[in-house]
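Render this sequence as a predicted structure.
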Amino acid sequence: MKRKNKRKTGYRILAFLLMLLAVITAAGCSSKIALKNADFSAGSGDQFSKWSQYNYRQSEDADSFRITRVQDETHGSCVRISNLSENDARIYQEVRVGAGKIYKVTAEVRIDGTLEGGAGFVISALETFGQSEGVFTTQDTWQTVTAYLKTAKGQHSLNLSFGIGGYGAETAGTVTIASVS
């Protein structure tokens, strides 16, 4: 009789610990960012509605940097960023966020050849902890890149960016970006 009670108590403790683990895991899950014009379809020409453009080397040779709209059979309207020389160039959008939360952000990207130097392609945001790993080649195929970003206490917005290069880590090359979320 005592052995059965001990076994039942053991199973109850195990069940409780598994439920506790599930609750803790669910609480730490990432939140979703509400991006506007995430498919890059709105806007005209090479301007993308709700998105801003950044070019660190803006005062230098204007022909060495381009952000353009391209069409892809699979993804439709896409953004292409080209740095003919090392630069930090990106598109970004200010978005509302909750303080102290973790956000999962993804993008489908295709890199022409190999990016040279610096940070490569990166998903990042100002005033957060975390960014994606730098990606330097996708072997000319589409690849999903993911970043987990943690907001600070009291933070309610951030500038979410998708680009090539970074602060002190300028990169040359061309990337096409689609399907951001």
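Summary. The first helix runs from residue 2 to 27. The chain has a mean pLDDT of 84.
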